[in-house]
Amino acid sequence: MAFLGISGMQYSGEMFAGARIIVAEDSNVFTSMISKRLKELFDIDVEICRNFEDLQLAYDRSSDPITLAISNINLPGAENGEALEYLVDLSIPTIVFTGTFHDGMRDKLMAKDIVDYILKDNIFAVDLLAESICRFLTNHRHHVLIVDDSATARALLSSRLKRYNFRVSVAESGGKALEILKANRDIGLMITDYNMPDIDGFELTRRIRANIGSHELRIIGVSSSSNRLLSARFLKAGGNDFMLRPFIDEEFYCRVNQNLDTLLQIQSMRKERAVA
C-alpha distances in angstroms, 265 versus 9, 168, 244, 270? Predict the structure, then answer.
């Protein structure tokens, strides 16, 4: 199965017929479009819940865990967002699919640690939803290393990445990061703070690049500094990207995706050349 997403994501691999996907949506048009598209792309037979009672029954009637839920904010029987609260309380990974959106709504959604939200305001909405689903179902292939001397920062980034279904390792220093990388060659992305007591982000990047190229490991530097030139220095040290704190969740996830997409594309091209 080959899939090319709206944002450029490329996936070629197994179907996801074993995934249990719940769609909590009362619109016949959207449920039909979602069902057809996910079956066509990934061989997924979704379970449709058109009201809050259907959603509760879907959870109660089967012992099989729900892999992912797609939910409108408001459903018949749950006009005040109770369906989303229900899914979040059950710790079911959830993508919100909604036509109701404003800044206050966005903040409330992100505070609930949802996987993603997709707006119904364009003709590509279902395709964007399909890509978000594909990313969630395949992100476990990616091992990400977080390097930061702040326990709070490590916990925050780790929770963000685990929300998206990535495998995550953490290091509290540059020295520990080098040890973890040596023992885990499957790590494809490292997110490192600049200001650390033993080895700063620049030096860590330089040491890594002496042995590991961008075709094996992507590196994103982060900093809370107001010095805009840090990004230039970091990129010159061998980094692939740079972000200033505080992050916007959507931007952070986009940068992570773009770097991992690039890594997969480079690796695919190298394999093709090796075969040729």
Answer: 9, 22, 26, 9
